[in-house]
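Re: Re: token formats

Sure, here are both.
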Amino acid sequence: MPKFTVQNLANCKVAVEQGQTLLKALQAGDIDWMHACGGKGRCTSCRVIVLQGMQNTGPLTASEIKYRNNGRLRANERLTCQCILETGDIVGEVPEQTKLPHLTYTN
């Protein structure tokens, strides 16, 4: 089963089931993650900076394309509420702007 590792969250590893978004996998693993719009792809608060494994993700969704086109989602970022792992693992980190105050992040 593919794994999502969050490097700046103590290398937290979450199993991602087939067809499951990264956000759903995080929630299933009881990992708090910012998602202001409720996981509907209407904002960018759930984004993740992808450090490794971008090639293992599914295609960009319409929401992600919209945010890429208007400069709110960089080429190395995905929305966890939209991103699905197709094969292999992914390593990412929480952007500074969306870190939650009650969690401890590492460098």
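Second one below.
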Amino acid sequence: MNKKFMIGGGAFIVAVVLCIFLILNMNAEESVATVNGETIEKEELYDLLVSQYGEDALDSLITSKIVQLEAEKNDIEVSQEDIDDELASYYNQYDGEEGFQSALEGSGMTIADFKEDVEEYLAMNQLLKDRISVTDEEKEAYFEENKESFNQPEQVTARHILTETKEEAQTVLDKLEEGEDFADLAAEYSTDDTTSGSGGDLGTFGEGEMVEAFDEAAFFLEDGEVSDPVETEYGFHIIEVTDHTNEKESVYEDVEDEVTDALNDSKLNEEYSVWLEEKMTEYEINNNL
């Protein structure tokens, strides 16, 4: 029941279910495509989708229905505040709401679909919370076994100005050397619409998070230093590093909350499978696919 399923397989199942639903609501005589005038009937597409994905899609719907019924039986309500807090954690992983919505669109899922999955996930948490516990001994052991994963990696804080040509990038660099303001030039010249309005600010990132050429240049620069034009698949970048943080070894007390969350998620996944098997035997389920 790892919540990351919602951007992967979960999104695909939602898309399949939606497609089957749309097909069922088409008129019987409607075709879904033609090739040189030869029609492909909706029944052909429906049969293909059901044969390949129908069982998974139906299982997903049955599971969701069980969670819904159990939540109602146990008077569990998920507040809008809880949903918003959970969404905020995803926005942070994708550098903001816009980046997250782009990832959703790429998977064929809408924000409305995702919010429904978040609500189901949070209801599931409440249903299972009394079935799992994490001890101090478990947390300390988990930390020792996974210590390196909690280390704070080397990071830089940077901003950039992106241009289409090397000549434009050189023009920007010349203006910077003449004393013009970086943020003003980003607003005037940068083709990166997501950062030009904020002075080209890219925030803080670790090695490997940017494309290779950009990454190498950014981590080579000293604080306050500006790069020569750096070419990537997106164009030519002028990069300024504003801060640099060295790698820092993790200390248990500093990451205890993260350790607790990791263990909770792991135990939740395990307990979810056990819980679902139990509920499958309790409910009368008729699969007529």
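The chain has two domains: 3-131, 152-245. The beta strands are 31-35, 38-41, 155-163, 201-206, 230-232, 235-245.
- S.
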